[in-house]
Every structure is written in structure tokens, then in C-alpha cells.
């Protein structure tokens, strides 16, 4: 099997499984999305870009200076995906393996994300993630990435 097809079974599984709701802020714990803070650098995270499409070259998509990008992130025990915003970069995150905690500016308590769930990251999302378990967490991230940013922006 060609190496670039290794994730085909995973993607087909995602399509067949249908949408799965990710963990959400528990009832009564929401708060207005004010300024947030959190760790400013990744810790224990491997970020691999699996593929990308330059959307400026796709004639039927009006998204110049953007790419549609697919990444695999492995977050080690104690690892941190640093604080960032999705104001300019919508994304879908599929939790392949493990359980990870999201610390969002819109929730007073951490949000739990488990294997098999999809987190939807919209313009309203500013957050950071931490693996508080004893096993690595594997995430697949698909986003509309601004070409002028660091390709490993979390």
C-alpha cells in the first residue's frame, strides 16, 4: 500500500460513522468569551502535516491565500497545545485515541474530548488543550489555513 494512502481507512471510517458530537461546555458553566490566557508554547506535541491543497489553485473555491490542510497531532501525557484563537482559521478536530481536556474562554470548566468525537472550532473559539492522562492522545486536524502563518500554528 502506498504511504500516502495510509489514512484512507481512517477517513472512510469518519465518513461512514457520521457526525459525532464532541464534548461541550457543561450546562450552567458557559461564560462570555472574554480575553483568555493559557500556555504560550507547545509541550510534548508532535505536529505532522499530512497533506494540503492550495485553495487559490482550485477554480471553484474563492479562498485565495488559504490552504485546506490535514494534520496529525500526537499529544504526550502532560502535553499542551498552547492557547490560540480560531478567529481566522476554522477547523474540525477528530480525536482518534485518548481523552484530552480543552480550556476554552467560553467555559468556566475544562471540556472533555474523547476518542471518536469531533470538536468544531469556529471563529468564536479561543482555547488551549492539555493531555492529563497517562497515554498519548492522537488528533486529526482539518483546517482552512492562512498561508502567511507558521505551518505548525496550533
From TrEMBL:
Residues 73-141 form the Cupin type-2 domain. Keywords: Signal. Residues 1-22 form the signal peptide. It comes from Methylobacterium isbiliense. Coiled coil: none annotated. InterPro entries: Cupin_2 (IPR013096), RmlC-like_jellyroll (IPR014710), RmlC_Cupin_sf (IPR011051). This is Cupin type-2 domain-containing protein. The keyword Ribosomal protein does not apply. Pfam families: Cupin_2.
Amino acid at each position: 500500500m502506498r504511504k500516502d494512502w495510509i489514512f484512507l481507512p481512517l477517513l472512510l471510517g469518519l465518513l461512514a460513522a457520521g457526525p459525532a458530537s464532541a464534548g461541550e461546555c457543561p450546562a450552567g458553566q458557559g461564560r462570555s468569551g472574554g480575553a483568555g490566557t493559557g500556555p504560550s508554547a507547545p509541550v510534548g506535541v508532535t505536529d505532522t502535516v499530512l497533506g494540503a491543497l492550495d485553495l487559490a489553485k482550485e477554480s471553484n473555491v474563492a479562498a485565495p491565500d488559504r490552504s485546506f490542510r490535514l494534520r496529525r497531532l500526537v499529544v504526550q501525557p502532560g502535553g499542551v497545545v498552547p492557547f490560540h484563537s480560531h478567529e481566522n482559521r476554522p477547523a474540525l478536530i477528530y480525536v482518534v485515541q485518548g481523552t484530552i481536556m480543552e480550556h476554552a474562554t467560553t467555559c468556566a470548566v475544562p471540556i472533555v474530548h474523547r476518542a471518536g468525537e469531533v470538536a468544531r472550532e469556529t471563529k468564536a473559539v479561543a482555547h488551549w488543550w492539555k493531555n492529563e492522562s497517562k497515554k498519548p492522545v492522537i488528533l486529526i486536524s482539518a483546517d482552512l489555513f492562512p498561508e502567511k502563518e507558521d505551518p505548525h500554528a496550533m
